[in-house]
Specification:
Elements lengths: L6 H13 L22 E5 L2 E4 L4 E4 L2 H4 L8 H11 L12 H11 L5 E5 L2 H16 L3 E5 L25 E4 L4 H10 L4 E6 L15 H14 L2 E5 L12 H5 L5 E4 L10 E5 L4 H4 L12 H17 L1 H22 L4 E4 L6 E4 L6 H11 L3 E2 L14 H22 L2
Helix pairs in contact: 3-10, 4-10, 6-7, 11-13, 12-13
Bound molecules: pyridoxal-5'-phosphate.
Pyridoxal-5'-phosphate binds next to helix 5.
């Protein structure tokens, strides 16, 4: 099996540092992974595969951090985007795709009676908490410790450059802990505008957890009783678990829901949606951005949603993901390596036992990257509908070897 080298990637990365702080910033930097075992720059992609600047080919289990659901360069999505592009993309006013997209979203998402459009997930999670604050006339937002809702000041995990006070209206709960939620609600009675939650717990650097029925019931009951809103941040899971939204999938009575990532198969668009009763107050929140209105991502999103429905993509990724999780679990057992695969099969995560600093995981994923399988050691993976069973079999074969190498490196 060929072992890749990343000579050009690292030359370019070194050069990029002269022009960009850290060369590449955020979670896409190669220094965050197993430095030296991953590419730094990607040249092209098709379906579930990507090729780096050294010409190495990978099956991509990060799916562009979740945007690639149907496969890169999906013909129907590309045709819709191209058709809009022929009319140009970014105008002074919204394009004629605005209304069809609003109708598509409200016709698709359960309890989504209206929508507003932004570019990134962070735009719309921030918008949703503002709507909740205007509607309730309260400031406090509850969120789970360790959950990621974006890069904006109120929720970003790092603090550089952000005054502490900007997070002062946030209160933290333990995800899935109904008693902790009750305690925090009791401590902030009458002041809570909303709770914002990911549909299930998919924080980086830990096993995923599906929401316990008791937790979901407690969220719904307390929100109704104490008159705060439930915001489901479906940026990462949206369109992967249920076409009508993950709130419906898990049973949350969502008042506001946020989508992004997979909804346009890689074209930049994000959406916040709400119940009818919130619409008037929602109209008071200032929300805009120069590129929020560009037409191509709208056309791509409509085509993506139609194709997810027509092709049965959600069922397909669940089936392939189940095969992946089972196959990797069996391969690890055969090598005498203990791992846990967690989360819904469409977006699994793998954790090594006795690996508190994720060193084994980084080594394993680095060795896999050197052999053409792009996993991430800290973040959940994604399965896309362009994958086929042969891709999963190739992945399991490479993984079996990488489990062996990891065992040789670290012991059992
Ligand atoms: C659950 C969740 N919410 C919000 C965001 C922020 O989205 P974006 O990076 O598009 O701003 C992310 C991004 O990973 C996310 O996973």
């Amino acid at each position: 099996m060929k072992v890749y080298e990343f000579t050009k990637s690292y030359e370019l990365f070194e050069e990029a540092k002269k022009y960009v702080p850290n060369g590449i910033y955020g979670p896409r930097t190669p220094t965050f992974l197993t430095f030296g075992s991953y590419p730094a720059f990607i040249k092209r992609g098709e379906g579930c595969r990507i090729w780096d600047v050294d010409g190495n080919e990978f099956i991509d289990y990060m799916c562009s951090f979740g945007t690639n659901l149907l496969g890169l360069k999906h013909p129907k999505v590309e045709a819709a985007a191209k058709k809009q592009m022929e009319n140009a993309d970014c105008f002074t006013l919204p394009s004629d795709q605005w209304l069809p997209m609003a109708k598509k979203m409200t016709g698709t998402i359960h309890n989504g009676d209206w929508c507003v459009f932004g570019k990134n997930g962070s735009d719309v999670t921030s918008y949703a908490i503002a709507v909740a604050r205007v509607y309730t006339g309260r400031w406090i937002i509850l969120m789970a410790k360790g959950s990621y809702h974006g890069s904006h000041a109120w929720c970003q995990p790092h603090g550089a450059g952000i005054p502490e006070e900007w997070k002062s209206h946030i209160r933290y709960i333990e995800y899935n802990d109904a008693d902790d939620l009750k305690r925090v609600v009791e401590e902030n009675r009458g002041a809570i505008a909303a709770i914002i939650l990911t549909p299930h717990r998919h924080d980086a650097l830990r096993d995923q957890e599906l929401p316990a029925q008791k937790f979901v019931d407690t969220v719904n009951t307390l929100a109704e009783k104490e008159k705060f809103l439930v915001i489901i941040d479906d940026i990462r899971c949206g369109f992967r678990l249920n076409l009508s939204g993950s709130a419906l999938h898990y049973g949350y009575n969502a008042d506001l829901q946020c989508f992004g990532k997979a909804m346009a198969n890689g074209y930049p668009i994000a959406v916040a949606m709400g119940r009818e009763i919130l619409k008037e107050e929602a109209s008071k929140v200032f929300f805009t951005g120069t590129h929020f209105f560009s037409g191509v991502p709208f056309a791509a999103a409509i085509a993506t949603i139609d194709e997810i429905q027509a092709s049965g993509a959600i069922e397909k990724i669940a089936k392939l993901g189940t095969m992946l999780m089972q196959g990797m679990s069996d391969a690890a057992s055969s090598e005498g390596v203990k791992v846990t695969l967690s989360g819904p099969p469409a977006m699994p995560f793998m954790n090594f036992h006795d690996d508190p600093t994720f060193e084994k995981n980084r080594y394993f994923c680095g060795e896999a990257a050197k052999r053409g399988i792009f996993f991430h050691p800290h973040h959940n993976w994604f399965v896309c509908a362009a994958m086929e069973e042969k891709d999963i079999r190739q992945t399991i074969e490479v993984s079996a070897l990488c489990f062996k190498l990891t065992k040789e490196q670290f012991g059992g």
